[in-house]
Every structure is written in structure tokens, then in C-alpha cells.
Input
Amino acid sequence: MSLALDPAAQDLLFREARTANTFTDEPVTDEQLQAIYDLVKYGPTSMNQSPLRITLVRSAEARERLVQHMAEGNRAKTATAPLVAILSADNEFHEELPHLFPHFPQAKDAFFGDRSVRENSAVLNATLQAAYFIIGVRAAGLAAGPMTGLDFEGLRKEFLDDDHTPLMVVNIGKPGEDAWYPRSPRLGFEQVVTTV
Output
């Protein structure tokens, strides 16, 4: 069975998708980010929660503050990427549910009145949206360098608040020289899929 997506798009979004480690100095524009968001916002989440929040790090001062929270091996990448996005989960996403889930506005209190329930759901669904975001960056013809090697609590205190859980930092731009490490192996279908 063939896929509905043409092979070139399959390659762009998946087969050629790699974590970029270097970038050119070509800027990433607000228009490109708007186009990425306008695509990925349609990716489904449970009850249309849409808890992903994106903090764009553009200023040199903010970049210096961010780099201090990155693991040593990730600092140079983050310092030189044209744009860096901090992806986080909004633990107060339920406040938007009357708008986002209008056919059952009571969901806000019926399912998400408890903070721990909200936090678990926010992290799960925002992580799903983070994956959509990375694919959206690829769809825009840019490269993404998602990273979780960082001081999460330091990052939260520096850039977010107690209502947001940081998920990852994503460097964004056109790939630079020697941007890719060699492709690592993948598991085969039989290793992953079980039929019951």
C-alpha cells in the first residue's frame, strides 16, 4: 500500500529529517514562524487541549541567559542558531477549553479541576504538539535541532513560571556546514509492532 503523501514530501518530513547541529546565519523570520504555527496548530490533541506554548529567544541578552542552562555539549549550538524556541506545556490550558472545546465547555472543571491531572495531560499533549512543531519546521524548509540536555528547573525559573513545564529547546534555521551526524539505526517493523 502506498502513502498518500508524495515521496518528496515523505523524504522532507521523515526520511531526510535529522537533528541539525550547525546552522547558517540566515535569519528565521516571523513570517516563517507564523506559517509553521498556522500549519501545526491543526494537529490533534486530546479534547483539543492545545497546551503547547512557544517562547522565541531572539535577543542576544536572552540568548546568553538561555545558553547558561544548556548542557555543555549543547551550548555552542544554541549560541549560534538563528532562532531558538523554548517549548513548554501550559498547566493552565483548561482555562481555554470553553473556547477550544465548545461542545462541552464543562470539561474545564469536570476533567481538569485537579492540578496534577492537568499537569500530566498538559505534558503529554504538548509533547505531541512539539513533535508536530518539529515536522512543521521541516515543512518550512528549515532544520530543527531539538534538545533536552539542559537544566529544566533553571530554564523554567529564567524564562517561564510555575504554570509552565519546559519540554525542550529547539534550534531552528538553515543547516550549516557538517550539520548532521551519521544516521543512527532504526528498529524494524517486527521489533516494534505486536499484533494481539
